[in-house]
C-alpha cells in the first residue's frame, strides 16, 4: 500500500486560556488524489484539524506528516509556506486591492516575474477565468471568486489543497453547479484535498471518503456509501441522514437482532457477540410496503409529506411492551397514503445497520444535528 499523502497520528490540540480541548486524539490517513471531507457539527474540531495540517496551529501532542515528511511532532516543525499546502478559505480571502492576476501570482514566490504571469494565466485559463485577469475581486460573482481562490491555491502546484467550508457562501441555486465544477477541477489537477463541511449533502456528493467528527474525535472514516449505509455509532447514524433507532439484542451468530418490533435478520452486525445490547439504525428508505401476510411491521400512518420522489411518512407501531413507537418511513410516491391508514411493511436488511449501544457513544445533552432519531 502506498504511503498516505497526509498522516495524523494521535494528534491533540487545546486552546489557551481555558483550556478548550478542540482535538482529543485524532488519527487519520489521506490517500493520494482523494477528496476527504471532515464532516461534523459546529465546534467538533474540523477547522482546527485543517489548520493543524496547514501549519497555522501547533499540536500539543501527536505527529503530522505531509508527503511522507514529518511537519509537526516532537522536536519537529515545518512552517506553513514550506509544507506544499494550498488553502481555500471560507470567505475566499482574496486581496481586494489586487487584481485577479495579482492575487494568483502573489503566492508564486520562487519564480521570476514573467514566469509567474505565465503560470497565473495558465491556471486561470484552465478554470475559465482568463477574461477576469485584470478585474478586481469585487467585480466578480461569488462563484468566480471561489474559482480564483482555488486558482491561487493550485498555482504553486501544492501537494495538497485544504478547503474550509468552500461552498457555504454560495447561493443555493448555484451551489451544486459550483460544487461539481470545483470537484472536476480538483480531479483534473489530481491533487489530494481535505475539505471541511458541516453539510452532509456536500460531503456525501463529492467525497471519496468522509471522516465524521464529534467532540474532537473522528468517529468513523469511510466512503459516503459506507457512512450512510453502515454507520458504526449512534452519532454517525443520526448526524448523517435521518435514522430510526431501535434498541435490540444480538441473537446467535447469523446476523439476527431481536428488537421491540420483532427479530430482524441479515442486518450488518459489525462483529457484535451474541447477547450484546445494540441499536439497529434503519434509514427511512429501509422499509418497503407489502401485503399484510408478509409484513413484519404493522402500524398506523400519523402524517405524510409529499417529497416528489417519495412520500415521507411518520408511522406509529404498537410495541410488544405497550404504547406506540414512531418510525420515519419513505414510501413510493405512486400510491396515496392518508393519516390514520393501516400499513404493513417490512425491513430491507441492506438499509439496517447494528451500531454500538447509545450509552457508550451518544451524549444526549447534544441537540440532534440532523433529522429526528427515534429511540424507543
Ligand atoms: P465550525 O463548524 O463552527 O467552524 P469546527 O468543527 O470547525 O466548528 P473548530 O473551529 O475546530 O470547530 O473549534 C473546535 C473547538 O475549539 C470549539 O470549541 C471552539 O470554540 C474552540 N476554538 C477554536 N478556535 C479557537 C481559538 N482560537 N481559541 C479558543 N478556542 C478555539
Essential attributes:
single chain, 376 residues, alpha+beta, 6-stranded mixed sheet, 22% helix, elongated, disordered C terminus, binds adenosine-5'-triphosphate
Could you describe the 3D structure shown?
The chain is α+β, with helices and mostly antiparallel strands and 376 residues long. Helix content is 22%, strand content 35%. It has nine helices and 22 strands. Helix 4 (142-154) runs parallel beside helix 5 (172-189). The two termini are 44 Å apart. The structure holds adenosine-5'-triphosphate. Residues 15, 20, 22, 40, 42-48, 198 line the site of adenosine-5'-triphosphate.
Topology:
Layout: E1 6-15, E2 20-30, E3 35-39, H1 46-54, E4 61-66, E5 69-73, E6 76-77, E7 85-88, H2 100-105, H3 113-126, H4 142-154, E8 160-164, H5 172-189, E9 192-197, H6 200-206, E10 209-214, E11 217-222, H7 224-229, H8 234-239, E12 243-251, E13 256-259, E14 262-264, E15 277-282, E16 287-289, E17 297-306, E18 311-318, E19 324-331, E20 342-347, E21 352-356, H9 358-361, E22 373-374
Parallel strand pairs: 3-9, 3-10, 7-8, 8-9, 12-22
Antiparallel strand pairs: 1-2, 1-4, 4-5, 5-6, 10-11, 12-13, 12-15, 13-14, 15-21, 16-20, 17-18, 17-20, 18-19
Helix pairs in contact: 4-5
The structure holds adenosine-5'-triphosphate.
Amino acid at each position: 500500500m502506498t504511503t498516505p499523502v497526509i498522516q495524523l497520528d494521535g494528534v491533540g490540540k487545546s486552546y489557551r486560556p481555558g483550556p478548550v480541548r478542540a482535538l482529543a486524539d485524532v488519527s487519520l490517513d489521506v490517500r493520494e488524489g482523494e477528496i476527504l471531507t471532515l464532516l461534523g457539527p459546529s465546534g467538533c474540531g474540523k477547522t482546527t484539524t485543517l489548520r493543524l495540517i496547514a501549519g497555522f496551529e501547533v499540536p500539543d501532542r501527536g505527529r503530522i506528516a505531509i508527503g511522507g515528511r514529518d511537519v509537526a511532532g516532537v522536536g519537529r516543525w515545518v512552517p506553513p509556506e514550506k509544507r506544499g499546502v494550498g488553502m481555500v478559505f471560507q470567505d475566499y480571502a482574496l486581496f481586494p486591492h489586487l487584481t485577479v492576476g495579482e492575487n494568483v501570482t502573489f503566492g508564486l514566490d520562487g519564480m521570476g516575474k514573467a514566469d509567474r504571469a505565465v503560470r497565473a494565466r495558465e491556471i486561470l485559463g484552465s478554470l475559465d477565468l482568463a477574461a477576469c485577469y485584470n478585474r478586481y475581486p469585487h467585480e466578480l460573482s461569488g462563484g468566480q471568486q471561489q474559482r480564483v481562490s482555488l486558482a491561487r491555491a493550485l498555482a504553486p502546484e501544492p501537494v495538497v489543497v485544504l478547503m474550509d467550508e468552500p461552498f457555504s457562501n454560495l447561493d443555493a441555486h448555484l451551489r451544486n453547479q459550483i460544487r461539481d465544477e470545483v470537484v472536476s477541477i480538483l480531479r483534473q489537477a489530481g491533487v489530494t484535498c481535505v475539505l471541511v463541511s458541516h453539510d452532509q449533502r456536500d460531503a456525501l456528493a463529492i467525497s471519496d471518503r468522509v471522516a465524521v467528527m464529534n467532540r474532537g474525535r473522528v468517529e468513523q472514516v469511510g466512503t459516503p456509501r459506507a457512512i450512510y449505509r453502515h454507520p458504526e455509532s449512534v452519532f454517525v447514524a443520526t448526524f448523517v441522514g435521518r435514522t430510526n433507532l431501535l434498541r435490540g439484542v444480538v441473537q446467535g451468530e447469523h446476523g439476527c437482532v431481536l428488537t421491540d418490533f420483532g427479530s430482524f435478520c441479515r442486518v450488518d452486525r459489525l462483529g457484535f457477540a451474541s447477547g450484546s445490547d445494540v441499536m439497529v439504525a434503519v434509514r427511512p428508505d429501509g422499509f418497503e410496503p407489502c401485503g399484510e401476510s408478509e409484513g413484519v411491521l404493522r402500524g398506523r400512518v400519523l402524517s405524510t409529506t409529499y417529497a416528489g420522489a417519495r412520500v415521507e411518512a411518520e408511522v406509529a407501531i404498537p410495541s410488544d411492551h405497550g404504547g406506540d413507537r414512531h418510525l420515519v418511513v419513505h414510501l413510493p410516491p405512486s400510491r396515496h397514503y392518508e393519516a390514520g391508514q393501516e400499513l404493513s411493511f417490512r425491513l430491507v436488511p441492506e438499509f439496517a445497520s447494528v451500531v454500538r449501544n447509545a450509552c457508550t457513544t451518544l451524549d444526549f445533552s447534544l441537540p440532534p444535528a440532523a433529522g429526528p432519531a427515534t429511540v424507543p
